[in-house]
């Protein structure tokens, strides 16, 4: 019973060591492939040339995820390495050089106004209902009597001019928070992020200094009434967020 030899000079200890070594090598391959599912092979930032073709450690292959509420499956990486045209030019030809916009940066998605190509469906709560909706569709949620109700208030832009009137409130039914203010600009109704809005007094006004008044009417709007998709949220927030840099020429100049 003291003889642990299996065959020849191969014993149990040596077999366990070899098994551990093979497992550890396989684990390294697995982990390196998993953390390189997107972003590889690496490209040269200036020319776009593939810097490293890659190999067995650089490609994890597609991976599928089962989506909740019968929304099918989604695979990642979801995109190839297709070229994307950007309405901007480099300030100088060097890696890391910033781009300056050549069109309308708020609509073209440059810099802080850029957006991600998110899913074209709505966010859902734990019960499968649309998470972000107009407050009137959820009778159990209302504005507290001690808080200001912005509906009916005038909206002022960064230039101090009137951009429109708050016509409705869109809330997050899961967290009971106001996410967007629906603003009637006269030509159409747009959504503005509540996080970028300042409500002044119970019967005062709403100040959204992200944009000038004339820019509100061009903001992206949801395609379907009463609901907003992940992608549409991304576009709305990017449009208003980009205004903090691109709304006025002075905002693009250095402080010093």
What does this structure look like?
With 256 residues, the protein is α+β, with helices and mostly antiparallel strands. It has 3 domains: 5-34; 69-108, no CATH class; 117-252, Photosynthetic Reaction Center, subunit H, domain 2 (Photosynthetic Reaction Center, Chain H, domain 2). 17% of the residues lie in helices and 21% in strands. The chain has helices at 12-34, 105-108, 230-246; strands spanning 5-7, 10-11, 63-66, 73-76, 88-90, 99-101, 132-134, 154-156, 162-172, 177-184, 189-193, 198-200, 205-207. The strands form 4 sheets. Strands 7, 8, 9, 10, 11, 12 and 13 form a 7-stranded mixed sheet that branches. Strands 1-2 form a two-stranded antiparallel sheet. A two-stranded antiparallel ribbon has the order 3-4. The mean pLDDT is 87.
Question: What topology emerges from the helices and strands here?
Answer:
Elements: E1 5-7, E2 10-11, H1 12-34, E3 63-66, E4 73-76, E5 88-90, E6 99-101, H2 105-108, E7 132-134, E8 154-156, E9 162-172, E10 177-184, E11 189-193, E12 198-200, E13 205-207, H3 230-246
Parallel strand pairs: 8-13
Antiparallel strand pairs: 1-2, 3-4, 5-6, 7-9, 8-9, 9-10, 10-11, 12-13
